[in-house]
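Exercise 7 asks you to align residues with tokens for two separate proteins.
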Amino acid sequence: MNDEQELKEIRKILSEAKTIAVVGLSDNPDRTSRQIAEYLVGKGYKVVGVNPNISKSGEIDVYPGLTDIPFEIDIVDVFRRSETIPELIPDVLKVNPKTLWLQEGVRNDIAVKPVIEKGIYTIQDKCIAVYYSLCRPFRKN
């Protein structure tokens, strides 16, 4: 897939998505995960966090794990180190989001292979906020 095709696909993903689960969401307002989650809320998405150590991040509800979220997730957006991705994959496969998005600096080609094989669109090493800005998706709220 070339860059233009990828941008077109990302624009479609961001236009159609309604719910985003941010894995590794922090309750610290200075952390990138929190800032991007709040940015996405401001763009009209329903955003929830995944972090076993907190239950809220600002106004965002946080669940201990992906499988604890009681509704369908369109995008799983991951703020975790690359080496921790393998432990996340079984839950990603269970919740079956439309997209698995690994944030800038996060990549694990081997770990995401079963996700790709299941047909879940997978993006690695890209910032969702940057791509939202680049793609300017058409959002229906």
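Second protein for Exercise 7:
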Amino acid sequence: MSSSLFLYQIILTLVCQALCDDPIKDFNCFNDYEAEMTCSFSSESLRNCSGYNMNVTQKLAYEINRYSCVFEGSHHNAICECKIEVEGFITEEIFSTTLLKGTKVLLQRDFKTIDYIKPKTPVLFVKKTENGNFHVTWVDSYEQRNVFTDNLFITLTYRIKGEIETNSTKVANTVGFCDIVGSLLQPKTEYILTAKMSSNYNGQKIYSDQSAAVHFTTGL
């Protein structure tokens, strides 16, 4: 075998190691601590998500539940994702996942519920008050209020439309509202407001997806 051919095979092997197993590198699973667990990996190096599937085992104190799902492409990001519905979560329980391509096992990984809580995406509402302030309220998207929702926080971020600089404030979900003082804003200016939720259960390490943007405009 010539040295050039041998070198080519080495390069090809290194390229395959870097790209062929790409889905394994960023595989992750998050739960909303209500009823849904979502697992995903990057699809940028893939033609599509076809053939990837996952088996999940939920280990409880007195029983074991098993789930499976097929990965599909996301409409929002370059990722493959699949979702399973469960009958609720317990902080210390373990989900054992097996990622497969067809019948080939690519990865096995355990996820403890409390470490991978990603809250649901909030929905924002803004109303201008008589004194020129902006009264912000939100829906945390959870069906019931409980200890978990009482330990959620919302981070509100607003900026002038077309600009990069932002202002942010964090509010406990239990407060339920936040007033943006109009006198501190630029007059006759359009602002964009977004939000993300986080949970005290895991030290607010993981934020929800960003909410849909809400626009509001200041007066004179």
